[in-house]
Amino acid sequence: MVQRNVGQAFDLQLRAFGANPGDPEVAGDLAFLLLTADPTQAETARQLSMHAIALRPSQLRAPLADDWSTLAIASGLTGREADSTNAWYVVVALSRNLDRDCRTALDAIDRHGDVLRAPVQAMMLRIRYHDRHGESPNCAWPVNSRMARGY
């Protein structure tokens, strides 16, 4: 059985980043792990997610909704609501799996609280505006999840 150890994963990613800071996968994974750290290191995660996005060759940027999700969460946690909202919009535009990305957004509210509510709400409204809410019950408006009572 594989043991899930965030601390060990963080240490491995940090060493990988130190060895190759130009690898966008390593930078993106480290940024994500910084959001799961206790305490959350949102500003560093925000900077690393932007670094990961910038490192990708332009032809490879389309499938990277994960890096943009990390940027959206980290931006919200650092008080950059407009940046968070815009990053969620990019997630929707790049999404290859809208259901997964909507769950990620809802889980971010569950984990990090109300500071992410307005950006995620804007994302859900954008999805509805573009008539994509039928792609997933997690993307429906009003939200059909444990967060429904909050909207």
Structural topology:
Elements: H1 6-19, H2 24-36, H3 42-55, H4 65-77, H5 81-94, H6 98-112, H7 117-129
Structural commentary:
With 151 residues, the chain is an all-alpha fold. The chain has a single domain (6-150), classed as Serine Threonine Protein Phosphatase 5, Tetratricopeptide repeat (Alpha Horseshoe). The protein has helices spanning 6-19, 24-36, 42-55, 65-77, 81-94, 98-112, 117-129. Helix 1 runs antiparallel to helix 2, helix 2 (24-36) packs antiparallel against helix 3 and helix 4 (65-77) runs parallel beside helix 6. The chain starts with 5 loop residues before the first helix and ends in a 22-residue tail after the last helix. The model is unreliable at 147-151 (pLDDT under 50).
